[in-house]
């Protein structure tokens, strides 16, 4: 079974539960069931958060694949901005009193002036025809630890829900070198608003955003991107209670590659520097008209540095000899943006169907147990929770409970594989060419092993994980048995 068909099975089960509720008491249940049905069409809302100048907007541009968010060395993001899929491409501001005012984009970007004073704006919405945004809404936020207090407070209001429901389902927390005190304080505050054990870590990814300059200059003997990746792993283990994982990214390189900023002229200029001595490039003079190579002047080199950084200047010269496409491919691969995209796809986008199904079921359960609700509603929820299609919710719950106390336990990886696996072979860690009989035999074997382990396991979180996996593998085997 594919992940798509599993998601559709969960969706159908919730729709059928809503229909059953309405047959019992449509006047009393209709408002909630209609809201639940609508919520199943929602995409995940990812907030990009971090200190001022951390590289948040650059990362948003790289993920969207277009230069849509303003970037500069000052506090350029004044309001929280939701980038979402839609057409025609346009923008609107949502005022704090609920009023909405439309505005036109400037070259596909936020304009310098919005149709209302910043202090009156709750957030802006930008509708774009970007394929990346079909699966998610990206929320770019004002910087924390900012010199402009109201901008940082706007982030807290919007993301932490100080004025109502929180705007984000999950965080991409961006830091430049290492998490500082106010970074950890925000993450702790984010964790305090979650309701499920381990959910704060499951809903936060860290991004070390300036990997190409990590540890100093890119002209030394140590590769700063490799050093940043090693440090990201250390950060992930040190701050596992707040961050599910940490990914090292060279943000400017990713933005240049993913947004089409690299042109053939750029690749040609860079390629002409292929034989230049590294030391000459590193110590190049500051005069714009100084020639670095015949026909290549310092102003051109500086423009390339502004585009792809010193690391790109040093290591991108040989890929550039094959043209702009080859240079962009190298920049994308070296920047680490693809690792982040995969992490988002697996941890957030791929898992969001389970999260929103769980929320929907919880809403229906609260309705069933509310004062005056007809007693049959409670039985309907209890029966729905036993449906095979909704078993992934038990896997998600078991994963979060165990990850909260033992994030490195092998059972965490096994539960994660059940949720992230795109097909039965991936769920069972078997080759794609495996036959249905081979998959069934593996599922039966693992089911028996999980059942035996659950009997002797003294720790409740592990015991629960084994029991859930027993049912996971049993369901797989039954389905494969035809």
Provide a quick synopsis of the model.
With 482 residues, the protein is α/β, with parallel strands linked by helices.
Task: Write the H/E string, N to C.
Answer: HEHEEEEEHEHHEHEHHHEEHHHHHHHHHH
Class per helix and strand makeup? alpha/beta
How many alpha or pi helices? 19
**Helical percentage:** 40-55%
Strand order of the largest sheet: 4-3-5-2-6-1-7-8-9
- CATH top level of the largest domain is Alpha Beta
- Number of beta-strand segments: 11
Using the alpha-carbon principal axes, give the shape.
globular
Oligomeric form: single chain
State the CATH topology of the largest domain: Rossmann fold
**What CATH architecture of the largest domain do you see?**
3-Layer(aba) Sandwich
Instruction: Give the CATH H-level superfamily of the largest domain.
Output: P-loop containing nucleotide triphosphate hydrolases
Q: Measure the end-to-end span.
A: 12 Å
Strand content: 5-15%
Q: Quick check: average pLDDT? A: 87
Q: How many structural units, i.e. domains?
A: 3
Largest beta-sheet characterization: 9 strands, mixed
The value of Rg in angstroms is: 25 Å
Uncertain residue ranges: 195-201
Tags for this model:
single chain; 482 residues; alpha/beta; Rossmann fold; 3 domains; nine-stranded mixed beta sheet; two-stranded antiparallel ribbon
Give an overview of the whole structure.
The chain has a 9-stranded mixed β-sheet with strand order 4-3-5-2-6-1-7-8-9. The chain has a two-stranded antiparallel ribbon with strand order 10-11. The protein has 482 residues and is an alpha/beta fold. The protein is globular. Helix 1 (3-39) runs antiparallel to helix 14 (376-385), helix 13 (337-368) runs antiparallel to helix 14 (376-385) and helix 15 runs antiparallel to helix 19 (460-480). It folds into 3 domains: 3-40 and 361-480, no CATH class; 44-250, Rossmann fold (3-Layer(aba) Sandwich), CATH 3.40.50.300; 255-335, no CATH class. The N and C termini lie close together (12 Å). Strand 10 (291-293) and strand 11 form a beta hairpin. The longest helix has 37 residues, at 3-39. It has helices spanning 3-39, 56-64, 149-160, 181-192, 199-202, 224-238, 251-258, 264-271, 278-282, 298-315, 317-320, 324-335, 337-368, 376-385, 391-405, 410-420, 424-427, 436-456, 460-480; strands at residues 44-50, 81-85, 90-95, 100-103, 121-128, 136-140, 170-175, 204-208, 245-248, 291-293, 296-297.
């Amino acid at each position: 079974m594919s992940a798509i068909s599993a998601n559709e099975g969960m969706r159908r089960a919730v729709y059928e539960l809503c229909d059953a509720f309405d047959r019992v008491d449509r006047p009393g249940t209709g408002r909630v069931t209609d809201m639940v049905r609508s919520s199943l069409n929602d995409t995940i809302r990812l907030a990009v958060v971090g200190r001022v100048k951390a590289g948040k907007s650059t990362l948003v541009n790289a993920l969207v694949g277009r230069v849509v968010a303003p970037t500069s060395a000052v506090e350029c993001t004044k309001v929280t901005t939701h980038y979402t899929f839609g057409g025609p491409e346009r923008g609107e501001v949502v005022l704090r009193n609920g009023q909405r005012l439309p505005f036109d984009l400037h070259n596909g970007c936020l304009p310098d002036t919005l149709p209302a004073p910043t202090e009156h704006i709750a957030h802006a919405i930008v509708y774009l025809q970007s394929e990346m945004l079909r699966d998610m809404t990206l929320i770019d936020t004002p910087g924390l630890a900012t010199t402009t207090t109201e901008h940082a407070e706007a982030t807290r209001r919007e993301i932490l829900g100080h004025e109502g429901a929180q705007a984000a389902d999950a965080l991409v927390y961006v830091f430049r070198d290492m998490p500082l005190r106010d970074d950890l304080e925000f993450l702790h505050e984010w964790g305090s608003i979650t309701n499920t054990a381990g959910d704060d870590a499951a809903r936060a990814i860290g991004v070390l955003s300036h990997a190409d300059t990590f540890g100093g200059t890119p002209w030394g003997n140590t590769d700063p991107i490799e050093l940043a990746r090693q440090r990201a792993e250390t950060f992930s283990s040190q701050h596992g209670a707040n961050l599910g994982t940490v990914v090292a990214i060279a943000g400017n390189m990713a933005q240049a590659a993913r947004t089409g900023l690299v042109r053939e002229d750029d690749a040609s200029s860079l390629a002409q520097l292929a034989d230049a001595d590294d030391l000459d490039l590193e110590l190049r003079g500051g005069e714009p008209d100084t020639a670095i190579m015949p026909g290549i002047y310092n102003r051109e080199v500086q423009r390339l540095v502004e585009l792809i950084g010193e690391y790109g200047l040093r290591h991108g010269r040989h890929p550039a000899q094959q043209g702009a496409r080859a240079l962009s491919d190298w920049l994308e691969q070296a920047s680490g943006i693809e690792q982040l995209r995969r992490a988002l796809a697996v941890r957030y986008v791929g898992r969001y169907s389970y999260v929103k199904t769980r929320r929907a079921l919880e809403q229906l359960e609260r309705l069933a147990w509310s004062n005056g609700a007809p007693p049959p509603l409670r039985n309907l929820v209890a029966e729905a929770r036993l449906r095979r299609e909704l078993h992934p919710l038990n896997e998600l719950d078991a994963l979060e409970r165990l990850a909260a106390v033992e994030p490195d336990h092998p059972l965490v990886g096994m539960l994660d594989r059940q949720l992230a696996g795109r097909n039965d072979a991936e769920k069972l860690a078997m080759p794609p060419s495996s036959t249905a009989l081979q998959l069934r035999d593996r599922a039966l074997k693992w089911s028996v092993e999980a059942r035996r382990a659950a009997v002797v396991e003294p720790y409740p979180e592990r015991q629960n994980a084994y029991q859930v996996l027993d049912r996971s593998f049993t369901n797989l085997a039954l389905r494969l048995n035809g």
